[in-house]
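re: ur question from yesterday

yeah so i grabbed the chain u mentioned. its 70 aa long if i counted rite. heres the sequnce exactly as i have it in my notes:
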Amino acid sequence: MKRLLLLIVPLWVLTGCLEVEQHPNWVKGQYAGKKDNRPFEVMFHKDRLAWWGTVANRNMHQNEYNRANP
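ran it thru and got these structure tokens back, copy pasting raw so excuse formatting
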């Protein structure tokens, strides 16, 4: 049991050393990556109200109580 513990503990301690850096690059205090486009900017030509209307309409049609009205 002690041998197993002596093998596992150093491996367990070293697992934190294998983590890679995941922070974005910063140049002069600003994020240097690519700007992500919003869905309403790409598909609706920056018309946020049209995008919200489409999302609300889609959500309304996904309600089973509204679709299966006897």
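noticed a couple things. The longest strand covers residues 26-27. also Residues 37-70 form one domain.
anyway ttyl
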